[in-house]
Structure formats: structure tokens, C-alpha cells
Amino acid sequence: AILVYYQATNLVNNEDSIITGIAEGNLRSDFNDLDIYPNPASDKIFISFRDQKKNSLTWKYMLTDHLGREVQSDVLSNRMIDLKQLSNGIFHLQVYSQDLIYSKNLLIIK
To answer: What is the DSSP letter of 52?
Structure first.
């Protein structure tokens, strides 16, 4: 998958980038295949796939805020994402492997 981004001139911080879209890839939007819980969350979420074979793959994740700015990304470890450093808000979660991308919205309430 290729993430397309650009630098906008009207941002508060000129170092911020905005993700504008995804091209080339196997984007999956089947919300029933990827489970995140709890949602809303406060300090951590857990990720699981209904297709058990996908649980054994290596996955990465990226969280973006409502403006499309990346706020956190890493390799998905133990199917858990620590949210302690994030503030309240609505975030977009992408969970991806070499060939697949899954996407869900996440609400954080502390």
C-alpha cells in the first residue's frame, strides 16, 4: 500500500502532514472481520480478527487524528495498542500487513 501525503500551508505546525488517501493495495473495509475493543476506549485497545489465520500474521498499525495527522504507529504487539499518551477524541485506526489494510474509527474518552 502507498500512503499519499502532502504538507499543507494552513496548519498550525508546518511540520504536520495530512494523509489524503490510499492507492494500490488491498483495502478491506469489512468491519465484521476486524474487532477492536473496547470502543470507546480510555487507555488501551485489543485487536482481533474473526479469521483466526490472520491473528498469526505480523501486523502494523497507524492512528491518525480527525485532521489526518499521524499520532501513533508501531508494530502491533500482543494484539494490544497502548493509548495512554493520547487525549480524548475520534481517531482513525489502520491495521495493515504486507498485503492487507483494515480500517476502523476509534473513540477515546479518558
So the answer is: H
CA distance between the termini of the chain: 33
Give the model's pLDDT for residue 1. 46
Q: Output the nine-digit C-alpha cell for 35.
A: 474487532
Task: List all residues 6 or more positions away from 19 whose beta carbon is below 8 Å from its beta carbon.
Answer: 3, 4, 5, 64, 68, 69, 70
Contact 88, 71 (CB under 8 A): no
This prediction's pTM: 0.73
Using CA atoms, how far apart are residues 2 and 43, in angstroms rounded to an integer? 30
Residue type at 76 in one-letter notation: L
Q: Which residue has the higher pLDDT, 9 or 75?
A: 75
Give the mean model confidence (pLDDT) for residues 82-106: 93
